[in-house]
Amino acid sequence: MEKGHRLFAAFSSRYLITPRSITRTITRVQRAYGSSASEEATLTLHTGARMPLVGFGTWNSPLDVVKRAVLAALDTGYRHVDCAASYYNQTAVGEALNERLNKICTRQDLFIASKLWNTYHARDDVRPACLHTLKEFDLDYLDLYLIHWPISYMRSDEKVPLLPDGSVAYSYVHYTETWAALEELVDDGLVRHIGLSNFNSQQIDEIMAMARIQPAVLQVECHPYLNQKRLISHAAKYNIITTGYSPLGSPERPWAEKGEPTLMDNPVVIKIAKKHNKSPAQVLIRFQMERKVCTIPKSVTPERIKSNFDVFDFSLSQEDMTDLEYLDCNWRGCIPSDEIDGNYIVRDFKHPFYPFHIAY
Ligand SMILES: NC(=O)c1ccc[n+]([C@@H]2O[C@H](COP(=O)([O-])OP(=O)(O)OC[C@H]3O[C@@H](n4cnc5c(N)ncnc54)[C@H](OP(=O)(O)O)[C@@H]3O)[C@@H](O)[C@H]2O)c1
């Protein structure tokens, strides 16, 4: 066997990579990105950097399967991975990233996003929280660091710290203080971009009024039942790109009603999917792409991970888009809730920074 072939055989047996799987990955990545990052597959942030339009979600991905899921996503061609400290799986995600780094992609090809959790909003807590996240990933920098929610809790290692009476131990650190601390992370090269998650239009205005470094991204729930038209155009006025989370309607969110029909079961979505010979999930992902909204579907199922990325070879007509936009009904799946005696009770809505009391 020639030396090159021997090396390839040793490498591929270790990493389960075959010539055919490499060809398939290259084809998918080329279809998505072209030979370089193409206009269609990425969005340009205010710094000029590009963010892949279709990313990969990791919320609710259990520890024992998330590494395999991220490996499958990278092999499929995803280069944008959406994470958060509060998903408690970043170490496993980092292992997957590092296994593929410098083999099928470089660090520059990747776009890694994470989020600062509510317990670390105080100015002095932000940098240690970010360093902890970087350590979990075993990476030197993040491409995007978001304030996960405008609401803050008391500093704690618990996700939701409680007072002795069982109520949530809130704090009232203002998100403008947190933002100033995030800006210092950019100064120090720990993060390339900073952004907001679950902020409403007024809260965005407040950040814009004081920001030295502007938010690059707003991440909010977004799908045809909550199409966020007004919030997206509000953010766009500031040159902030929107990422839509829960694009498939988050059917496995812990507080979902048992047996409730999902967004993927909606007859309008199914009809459009049949017309294009695509799945309902592919239509919902393409819906965001047509609107230049970044989207981050989550899956731990290899076939779904692949098919959710097979969305670059069709487009939705204006009529399809109008039909999907018509489904908007202000339905929100992601409302922080706690389980008490088998029932889910909405949390945080009395906090002064709760974002969902106004229309957008
Ligand atoms: N900023 C925030 O506050 C926030 C909040 C929520 C979510 N997010 C981010 O957004 C990501 C996506 O949102 P999400 O996880 O709420 O929900 P989602 O992406 O709307 O839906 C994920 C669910 O859909 C299933 N699924 C995936 N592809 C499918 C397909 N092709 N056909 C049928 N079912 C499919 C998945 O099952 P399997 O995994 O079993 O395949 C999983 O149960 C999160 O993972 C997270 O990264 C951010």
Please give the radius of gyration in angstroms. Answer: 20 Å
% residues in beta strands = 5-15%
Give the strand order of the largest sheet, numbering strands 1, 2, ... along the chain: 3-4-5-6-9-10-11-12
Query: Ends: how far apart?
Result: 64 Å
Helix content: 25-40%
Largest sheet: 8 strands, parallel
Question: How many H/I helices?
Answer: 12
In the CATH hierarchy, the architecture is Alpha-Beta Barrel
CATH class: Alpha Beta
Q: Find the count of extended strands (DSSP E, 2+ residues).
A: 14
Assembly state of the chains shown: single chain
Uncertain parts:
1-17
Order of secondary-structure elements? HHEEEHEHEHEEEHEHEHEHHEHHEE
CATH superfamily: NADP-dependent oxidoreductase domain
Task: Give me the CATH fold name.
Answer: TIM Barrel
> How many distinct folded domains?
1
Based on CA inertia axes, which overall geometry fits?
A: globular
Question: What's the overall average pLDDT, rounded?
Answer: 92
What does it look like?
The chain has 360 residues and is of the alpha/beta class. It has a single domain, classed as TIM Barrel, CATH 3.20.20.100. Helix content is 38%, strand content 14%. It has helices at residues 3-15, 19-33, 63-76, 90-100, 123-137, 175-187, 201-210, 229-237, 267-276, 280-290, 302-307, 318-325; strands at 42-44, 50-52, 56-57, 80-82, 111-116, 144-147, 152-153, 170-171, 194-197, 217-221, 241-245, 294-295, 337-340, 343-346. An eight-stranded parallel beta sheet has the order 3-4-5-6-9-10-11-12, covered by helices on one side. Strands 1-2 form a two-stranded antiparallel ribbon. Helix 3 (63-76) packs parallel to helix 4 (90-100), helix 5 packs across helix 6 and helix 9 packs across helix 10. Bound molecules: NADP nicotinamide-adenine-dinucleotide phosphate.
